[in-house]
Structure formats: C-alpha cells, structure tokens
Amino acid sequence: MKKGYLYIILSTILFSTMEISLKLVSGKFNPIQLTFIRFFIGGIILLPLAISNLKKRKISVDVKSIGFFALSGFICVIISMVLYQLALLNAKASVVAILFSCNPVFVIPLAYVMLKEQVYKDTIVSMIVSIIGIVVIMNPFNMSGSAKGIIFTLLSAATFALYGVVGKRKSSEYGGIALSSFSFIAGSIEMLILIAISKISFIAALLNKSGLKMFADIPIIKGISLSTIPSLIFIGIFVTGFGYTFYFLAMDETSASTASLVFYIKPALAPILALIILREAITINMIIGIVLIIIGSCITFICNSKRNNIDFEDRDKANFSA
C-alpha cells in the first residue's frame, strides 16, 4: 500500500507539470507534431508493461481489438489531445490544467447514456459543484482573450472523457496499461498518416488558404535540436510515459478510486507550479473555482470509497457464509 501512495505522488507531480512543460516548448514545435512525438514515446514506454500484463491474463490482441484501439487512439490522440494543444496555445497552463482535470464531469452523463451506469445523488451534487467551479474560473462576464482556450479545453476534456467511457469495457479485459499503450501507439500511427497527407502540395495549399496553417505541411523532426531534446525527453518519457505508468501501478497497488486522487490533487498543485515556473498569476476567481472543484472531487472520492468498502464487506460476508 505504501508503494501505491508513492506511485500516486510521482504520478501527481508528473501530471501537474504536463501543461507547464508543453507551454514552455509550444513556440518551438508545431502542436500536431508535439502531440505525435509525446504520445508515440509514451505508448512505447508503456508497451513492455502492457505486453507483460497480457501474458499474465493469457490473452492476445486480435484483429477486432486492433480496430478498437484504432478508434480509441483516434478519439484520444487525434481529437482530444489536438484540442488540448490548441487550448494551451490560447489559455494559461494553470487554467487548462484545472479545467481538464474536470473531465469526470463529462464522464458521468456519458457513462449513464453509453454504459447504463447508475448515477447516485452524491455524484450529481459533485458534478453541480464542479460545474459551478468551472463557471467561476471561466468568469463569463470577463472572459477576454482566453475564451477560445477555455472552449478548446472543455472540448478536449469532453472527448477525453468519451475515450475513457469507450475504453472502459476493453480496459477490464486488457487492463488500463495495455489499453493506453495500444491506443497511444495506434493514435500516433494515425496521426503520422495525417501528417503525411498534410504534406501533399494541393492539400497544404488548401489548408493554408483556409487559415489552418498549423495543419498544413506538418513537420516531424523540425525543431528537434540539442537544446530541445531534454524538453522532449521530459514530456515524452517522464510526463506521458512514466506519468501514466505510475498511475496504473498505483491503481494495481491500491484501487481505482484511490489512484484517482491524482486528478483531485492536480487542480490545486498545477496552478502553484505554473505560478513558480511560468509566473502565471492565480486570480481570486481561480482560487474560488479550484476550491469548488476540489470540494466536488472530495464528495465523489469519499462517497465512492464508502460504496467500495460496503461492497467489499458484503463480498467478505458472502464468502464467509459460503
């Protein structure tokens, strides 16, 4: 259990630096290029653990599963993470970190509709409190130039929630590490195909004329130099690769609800790191929003823990009776 909490701490620190590290190199790389690099590296880092888990479960990847990983990779890498990069170009790293951590707000209705999962009263209360926190941070009466960034962040969080809900059934079969690794690699391969298409002259010209310059003639290695390699290593290997690895190891050592503490702590830690590293000011409305989001997260965490304990006790009683 102690090892599990160590993994939670490591994962939280790495995930809390995600937006900051990406913001620091945002001007040096094309956003699509950077997404491709970090998720390809992240998927490869997760691959040995993914293969090991599949061997333990005595299952293999079939053609149908490859199609599923292509779909989940498309939702996660191509849609959600491209929107995420666009969010970072148009909003402060701290705001993106806080709002993206609210993706469970989108998971609840999606899981209810798609998986027919039960929605509890405390879940609705938690969701309402978190939504109020989001609105406070958005500050709709004074959104100024960050409006576009906030919209991109919320769309990214919503599609990432969709990725989580779509992958839930396969996750129970293959495990979270395998799902993430194969989805990341599949999504990166799909992105590589799109990058190749973007280099076709008439398509590049059309995208440029349409004002979509960043999607035209997307580079693969441009910007990679001795000065940027350390940043890419940190983003690809540590933040994306080890960040997800520690998160799933924490889940194995503790439980899914306990490991989710990572996303409850991040909204508070990420703005502090952004203040220290990027000198991003923490406004009053951000502080109020953060507090509301943490309260909403705590309601979910405490109630889920109680339900899990009750289920565990019921199973113990059933086993004892048997």
Tell me about this structure.
This protein is mostly helical. It has one domain (2-321). The chain is 81% helix and 0% strand. It has 14 helices and no strands. Helix 3 packs antiparallel against helix 9 (176-198) and helix 7 packs antiparallel against helix 14. The chain is globular and about 60 Å long. It starts with a helix and ends with a helix.
Number of structurally distinct domains: 1
Helix segment tally: 14
Number of strands: 0
SS strand fraction: under 5%
- Main pleated sheet: none
Q: What do the pLDDT scores average to?
A: 84
Membrane topology: Multi-pass membrane protein
Main location: membrane
Keywords: Cell membrane, Membrane, Transmembrane, Transmembrane helix
Protein name: DMT family transporter
Write the layout of secondary structure elements.
Blueprint: H1 2-16, H2 18-25, H3 31-57, H4 63-90, H5 93-100, H6 104-114, H7 121-138, H8 147-174, H9 176-198, H10 201-209, H11 229-253, H12 256-259, H13 261-278, H14 284-321
InterPro entries: Diverse_Substrate_Transporter, EamA_dom, EmrE-like
Subcellular location: Cell membrane
Keywords: Cell membrane, Membrane, Transmembrane, Transmembrane helix
Provide key terms for this protein.
single chain; 322 residues; mainly alpha; 14 helices; 81% helix; 0% strand; disordered C terminus
Structure described in brief:
The chain crosses the membrane at residues 5-24, 36-54, 66-87, 93-112, 124-141, 147-166, 178-207, 227-249, 261-278, 284-303. The protein has one domain.
